[in-house]
Amino acid sequence: xxxxxxxxxxxxxxxxxxxxxxxxxxxxxxxxxxxxxxxxxxxxxxxxxxxxxxxxxxxxxxxxxxxxxxxxxxxxxxxxxxxxxxxxxxxxxxxxxxxxxxxxxxxxxxxxxxxxxxxxxxxxxxxxxxxxxxxxxxxxxxxxxxxxxxxxxxxxxxxxxxxxxxxxxxxxxxxxxxxxxxxxxxxxxxxxxxxxxxxxxxxxx
Length: 205
Known about the structure:
Layout: H1 61-68, H2 85-88, E1 93-96, E2 104-107, E3 120-124, E4 129-134, E5 170-173, E6 178-181, E7 184-187, E8 193-195, E9 200-203
Antiparallel strand pairs: 1-2, 2-3, 3-4, 5-6, 6-9, 7-8
């Protein structure tokens, strides 16, 4: 029986990094003599499901005009602050050693009224690209998210967990290649209902 390696392969460009320095490793002109990364993968915002017309088509003239003007699309799961809250709303991240050749950083979260989306995203250290590895629950109407939308098992109808402020309540299991959320919410909104010790799994394999 062969064993699965739990150790990622370190990217070659890591050897050129110096302690105490910041480096840009994706984009048009990355540092360390790295090649540019493809457009649409350079920023976390590139993977926002609200911007995917297959998932979130524009409904109504007002929304079509909004997008024509280049503004961020609205989505039922957008909450008050929208997609940026996935990192800015007191949310943590994990390093998934078995997602990609060199591992990936996984981000997920929302909390209160900030963001209701249960989408999951990864930054692959080998390709230096962002991707959305789970769309989350995108089939609901406005009443399926936020205050008043109560889910006793802390998960949406598709099985994905309601996104809390994750803080440090996230871990990674390299054996199962699973993202573990050690905090559950029955409802999102200004007065959240909490199940602090419910364990939710997000499969990333």
